[in-house]
Amino acid sequence: MNITWRLAWRNLWRHWRRTWLTVGAMVFCNMLLIFLISVQLGSYQMMIDNSLGAFTGHLQLQHEGFDEEQRIRQSMPAVAERARQVQELLGAEAVAARGIAYALASSEERSFGIQVTGVEPEREPRVSTLPGLLREGRYLSGADGEIVVGALLARNLRVAPGDEITILGSGRDGSFAAAIATVVGIVDSGIPDLDRALAQVSLPWFQTVFSMGDHGHSVVVRLPNLEQVPLAVTTLQALRAEHPELVVLDWDQLQPGLRQAIRSDMASAWVMYGVLILLVAFSVLNTQLMSVLERTREFGVMLALGVSPGRLARLVGLETALLAALGLGLGVLLGALLALYLQQAGFTFPGMEEMNARFNLPERIYPPVTLASLLWGPLTVFLGALLAAVYPALRLFGLQPVAAMRAT
Question: For every residue of 10-25, which 3-state class applies, written as one string?
């Protein structure tokens, strides 16, 4: 250890109470940032799972152009077999085929436009949380003529389980599609746009009513986590060699607004984090400025002995770096212990368990422990502390040796 390092370390402990107070502020700030960022990332994970689990899944295999145009003729043949093929390729259990059409639904009193979705009743619960959000009745059994509708659609049509709905639409071949379905269940997802038009029937019956043959419109895949999405997309791209009309869409393409919402929330959160970091930086600035002012005579003697102002400035900068490193190390250590505990035990706040149970979600947030959550905030605090040392260090360049030695 050279003389500059030794001087910097010893200077820190001239006023050990002040040093520990400053380090304590940095440690508290770092722990708080690690906690907040970890919980924030965990809430994003829950938000993504909630949004994707409701209907879209993590990725879908579709006919090219169907996602934008939603035309019934933009279908893929042998959709159920294609779903089994995707399941085999990915080694995933949560894979299901769907068909989608738009129709007019009429009850005895009212008529409304709906999106009729043909699903595989035994597989749909694996890719969607909607079957678990039934408010009344039961889910589809696979029998012909059964329909599950959204809560707002049921209210608008004034129907309940056991009532009949007439469906009028257009078949894939341009023919007239008409059928009568019996309501067996009502889903309340809490998403108004979805509950207003949701109508699910069994896929074989859907294919019969809308003259689809064995065609369908999408194969939905739900994966254990987002990290597996890129590899799954790459794997499914191999199907395009045999079927160039098919495309693989990941969750970002299926729900582009979701990532934008996360970015907006993160930007607003960093405004609050920035205020916290700024307060810590001013604390470091105050500590170092007081240290420089107290040692004015000492610095004057060193300048008179031939020490350059640049070397003194580096000494002050090194003292600040050591101070910030202490705060960084202790803050990350204690913050990591807190984050690891929360990852195992989970985190909740009053009312969250009831709210999540209503949407078929986990009762607690389990914040992920990643390098980003552990280092993102503390490193920003570290850089802020180093910047805070610039002003005290620059003051040394204006010192005159004789005047400094006469300072009281």
Answer: HHHHHHHHHHHHHHHH
